[in-house]
Amino acid sequence: MSATTGLQVSDLRFAYSAEGFRVHVPQLELAAGKALALAGPSGAGKSTLLRLLTGLLTPTAGKVSLGASQMETMTHEARRAFRLQHIGLVFQDFALLDYLTVTENILLPHQFRGTADAAVRTKMLDLTERLHIDRYLNKRVSHLSQGERQRVAVARALVHEPQFVFADEPTASLDPARGRIVVDMLLEDTRRRGACLVMVTHDPNLLPLFDQTVRMEDLATA
Amino acid sequence: MRAAFHLAARYVLRHRIQSALLAGALGLVFALPLCLRVLIEHAQQELRSRAAATPQIVGTRGSALDLMMTALYFKRENLLPLPFGELTELQHHHSASASTMAAAIPLHVRYQAQGAPIVGTELEYFPFRGLHLAAGKQLSRLGDCVVGATLAKQRGLQPGGHLFSTPEQAFDMAGVYPLKMRVTGILTPNGTPDDEALFVDLKTCWLIEGRSHGHDDLKKDESVVLTKEEGNIVGNAAVRMFNEVTDANIASFHFHGDVSTYPISAVILLPKDAKSEALLAGHYARSKEQQLIRPRDEMEALLTQLVRLEGFAASALLLTATAALLVTALVFALSFRLRQREFATLEDVGVSRVSLISVKVLEVLIVGLAAAVIGLVLLQFSSFAAPYLLRWAL
């Protein structure tokens, strides 16, 4: 495994309060180009772990390395810049801006980075075609179905070809067939580019598709 | 910054009705004090210029303001009438010592024709106000009228047309009756109340008032005679009264009573020089029945009150503007609070805090800019509408 391009977690601890919910990950490694599924019952801390890995939450203790970057040592702003550049996020609630079109939502990170060039647009067209949302490009996302919105969120996470993709139950709003298309696309895209994929899922049928599976209940007893 | 502007503009456009309402309210609130200023400045300028162009006015003692408004703006104020003899006095009595002390122009302002004031005066009034004939000819006989430019345009009046005077009371059977006046000329516009008035000879006013009349010749038709007493013939109810002066009946019109007691509203005095002005002012200062006013002074006194009122109004509007600003700040604060999830998403995606602040600031600026544009349009409109509003108000 390449320690400088993959994901490494060691003795990661987090608690919302002294007596409250806790997450503890003694050790976790994911090589570049590999995919990890985070499974577990609701409330087990899957989404919290995802937020810790992406730097949206700061751990109480331990280390999170994304490539050569130590997330816990970075400032808030540095983590933000890192996410914009190297991380693709798919949120459980899609987190799209209703007043923007599909194109504008997908290119949003690029707009703020100033890199929304022709190559990026070509990549966007390719992604939207594969996700079957290419005919909605100029439509506002508020006019789309839940499933279509979820696919827009996936396209936004992948369009800037990030080294790390984190997806929080991206198939939750989709029928099994569409869900499978989305997961296949995430896996194919990250593997082809040698990027890491960490995905939270409830669906046991999807777990065999991943290189690694981490069950939250196992972590808690680890 | 470009991305922040794009995002801010898209949000404002998506919520265009709410944003337009907010911008409209802000624009209105901030433009109002300025519009008020523009209107008042225009009013001051116009009121001053007409007052300054009218050196002195003589009328019966009473309200100086009413006298000024009657003589300058043809308002039908409840002025006590000035006897016509006073004009004769002015024109002839002072002649021994001051025959050329001042030109005197009488005004009779009491009646209306279809809502427009009928101003009884003499021909000197027209050159004094810079009024010329745009069409037709001047007053040449009893019952003729010349019409101001705006009034003629509004009513579609042309030389040769007719206009009826309006009775003061619908059921005044014995008094004033509608006179059919012949329009002989249309005046050029001078941007003053003259444009909305119609002008007649003083005698025509007295004819409307009933001090003069024309009827069938009682000597020629016995059937309309009620009694004959010592050469005085009294007609019965069948006597035909003329409500229009024509070439055929003009000879039958005659006045009853002493013309010097006939009423006029005011006399405009145009003193020859400062000394004459002072002498005339001194003369009327001693008079118990008449007063002489300098419209310039009266108008300044009136405008001083207006400026004070404007101060109060401006203070109230400024307070309103401050309140509107606070409400707007609250609206934005609440809007940003409601959109916390949206901004959190942008943060999660990696948008910097500076960019997020830029988005918010730009949204405020876009709405503020729209408000400024609306305010400027309102201001421009108030400049354009000021003369019409003033004319309407007066």
General description of the model:
The complex is a heterodimer of chains A (222) and B (394). Chain A has 222 residues and is of the alpha/beta class. Chain A has one domain: 3-Layer(aba) Sandwich (Rossmann fold), CATH 3.40.50. Helix content of chain A is 36%, strand content 22%. Chain A has 7 helices and 9 strands. Chain A has helices at residues 46-53, 76-86, 102-113, 118-130, 146-158, 176-193, 216-221; strands at 7-15, 22-30, 35-39, 61-66, 69-70, 87-90, 164-168, 196-200, 212-215. Chain A has a 5-stranded parallel sheet with strand order 6-7-8-3-9, sandwiched between helices. In chain A, helix 3 runs parallel beside helix 5 (146-158) and helix 5 (146-158) packs parallel to helix 6 (176-193). Chain B folds into 2 domains: 2-46 and 303-393, no CATH class; 56-214 and 253-293, no CATH class. Chain B is built from 12 helices and 16 strands. Chain B is an alpha+beta fold and 394 residues long. The radius of gyration of chain B is 31 Å and the shape is elongated. In chain B, strands 1, 3, 4, 5, 6, 7, 8, 9, 15 and 16 form a 10-stranded mixed sheet that branches. The model of chain B has no long low-confidence stretch (mean pLDDT 86). Classes of the chains: A alpha/beta (222), B alpha+beta (394). Chain A binds chain B through residues 54, 56, 77, 80-85, 87, 89, 91, 95-100, 104, 108-109, 111-112, 114, 140, 156, and chain B through 2-4, 6-7, 10-11, 13-15, 341-342, 345-353, 355.
Q: Give the helix/strand class of chain B.
A: alpha+beta
Structural class of chain A: alpha/beta
Count the E strands of chain B. 16
The chain pair with the largest interface is: A-B, 26 and 22 residues
Strand runs of chain A, count: 9
The total tally of domains of chain A equals: 1
For the CA atoms, what is the radius of gyration of chain B?
31 Å
Please give the largest β-sheet of chain B. Answer: 10 strands, mixed
